[in-house]
Amino acid sequence: MFTSNEEDTKKLIMELSQRNANIEFLTSTLQTLQDSVRNAHLQWEKRIETVERASSALQTSLNSLQQTLYANKQEAHAETRTVHEALKKTSDHFSAVFNQLQINSQQSRCSMEQLAGQLHQLRTEYSALQASYQNLMAWLRPHQHGQHQCHHTALGHQ
Questions:
Q1: Model confidence pLDDT, tens digit, residues 14-46
Q2: Contact, 158 vs 152, CB < 8 A?
Q3: How far apart are CA 154 and CA 158, in angstroms?
Q4: Of 5, 75, 120, 143, which has the most beta carbons under 10 Å away?
Q5: Residues in Cβ contact with 10 at an 8 Å cutoff, skipping those fewer than 6 apart
Q6: Dist. CA 53–CA 59, nearest whole Å
């Protein structure tokens, strides 16, 4: 049989062997965990890089959209001013034309009233001339056979 010293040594060797196996298992497990952590870390770094690139691209797009929006807004303001100025000019022109038409209408009314007055005066004068002509013709008819005598009568030689 084995001596107690040998038994203790065998026990000790078995314990050391078991501890060694545990250490190797733990070392292997730790190595696997470290590899997993490293891989996860690399994947996260790649994801972060992807997100950063996407974020940068989005920021660039946003900046471009803001610039386009600002340019469109400026252009819309300019077009609005142009249209407003054109409308103002058209309105002013319309007002001037309308005022001139009112003046022309008033002048035409005055001219028509003057022409109506002149026409009335001409009609009155024409009626007076026509009456004088008729009176003259009426006076001449009975005296046509004795024109000579009428001439003397008109001269006051009766």
A1: 999 999 999 999 999 999 999 999 999 999 999
A2: yes
A3: 9
A4: 143
A5: 2
A6: 10
Q: State the burial class of residue 48 (Cβ atoms within 10 Å of its Cβ: 0-12, 13-18, 19+).
A: exposed
Question: What is the C-alpha to C-alpha distance for residues 158 and 151, in angstroms, rounded to an integer?
Answer: 10
Q: What is the pLDDT of residues 90-147, one digit of tens each?
A: 999 999 999 999 999 999 999 999 999 999 999 999 999 999 999 999 998 877 655 5
- The confidence score (pLDDT) of residue 142 equals 79
SS3 letters for the chain?
CCCHHHHHHHHHHHHHHHHHHHHHHHHHHHHHHHHHHHHHHHHHHHHHHHHHHHHHHHHHHHHHHHHHHHHHHHHHHHHHHHHHHHHHHHHHHHHHHHHHHHHHHHHHHHHHHHHHHHHHHHHHHHHHHHHHHHHHHHHHHHHCCCHHHHHHHHHCCC
Who's near 152: CB < 8 A, 6+ residues apart? 158
